[in-house]
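Archive entry: two folds, one per protein. Generate the first.
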Amino acid sequence: MEISREQFEKSKDYYNKYRKLTERHQSIMNQYIRYNNTLPMEYNTPIGNLDLSIRLKNVLAGAKVYTLGDMCKVTPLEMYRQRNFGKKCQNEMKEFLNDIGIEWGH
């Protein structure tokens, strides 16, 4: 899959905005997740645009997790119910979310 320079820059901008948002507003994000409201635009970044393994992307697609916001909302128990989600996927997902300032599975 090839993307244009414009799509790449747009995705990069969304990701940078998202990082700034998580750094400044972790409590806001937690509130959105707790009350299951819609997340800000930055959380609508597609999973395909994130730096994840193909295996994890496929598992997330099977769990109907399509955006970063969906990824933040899903629980470890829900993910363990998915086929092919094991320790490697769990560690990768947890590490990715921790790198962007989100504690997953606590």
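Generate the second and append.
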Amino acid sequence: MSVTRVVHFSFPFLVHYCIPVDIINDMTHTGEEVPQPIACKRYSGKFMVRVPPEIHRNLAIQASESGVSLNRIAGVKLSR
């Protein structure tokens, strides 16, 4: 016996997150798990970014001159 999980999304949710309805219906019909939309996932607030050494140096200098951490300076720049 197979169990089919039906996933219902509200219309505004689908429009806002651009969920391809046909794909969701197809996945549900074939018994595949529909992945959670990225916008609904929980994030830790941590990720690693690799940058060239010169950019690292410049950001470290800016942070030091501003009296804030490198993380703070990078966060501000990423949020722009």
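Annotation attached to the second fold: The longest helix spans residues 53-66. The chain has a mean pLDDT of 81.
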